[in-house]
Write a structure and sequence with these properties.
It is a single chain. With about 170 residues, the protein is mainly beta. About 0% of the residues lie in helices and about 50% in strands. It has strands spanning about 5-10, 15, 20-25, 40, 45-50, 55-60, 70, 75-80, 80-85, 100-105, 110-120, 130-135, 135-150, 160-165, 165-170. Strands 2, 3, 5, 6, 8, 9, 11, 13 and 15 form a nine-stranded parallel beta sheet that branches.
Length: about 170
Amino acid sequence: TANHGVQIDYTTSITSNGGSGILLTGQGGSGTSGNHGITTNRTVNLSTNSGGITLIGTGNGSAGANVGVNLLSTNINSAGGLNITGTGSQTAVGAVLGNSGVYVGATSLTANGALAITGHGGRGSSNNRGVEIGSASSVIGGSIAMVGIAHASTTGSGNAGIWLTSSALNSTGA
């Protein structure tokens, strides 16, 4: 468990001052649960002064909570665009839950340009969402596009393509 592709924790800051921006790509390792492609937690800051930010993650594992891109207590501020793509575990089996493509909790996502989030929910029974934004999160972008796809083989409840709870979305039109 907890075999993450990329893990950033505990008041870590990553800033790009050049025009190339930030690219993070990760795939969770094998195991049962908690194998996120990318996970951030506990006051992480990612920012660019020019250029964009791209996060691509794939969860992996045979049980639940294998999220593609898992953002908790994180601030992301992009001078350009912000693109997040995540896929929940496609190898999970049985009555498992929480294999979301992209999960955003207690997080602020801000982009001066276009902000795009694409999530593919993983296999399992319940709460395997494409994109889930909740828990006091905010999403601000010049334009905002979200695509969420629940896995076709999920059998329980709460398997939405896009799930928004206690969150704020604001398109500035920039």
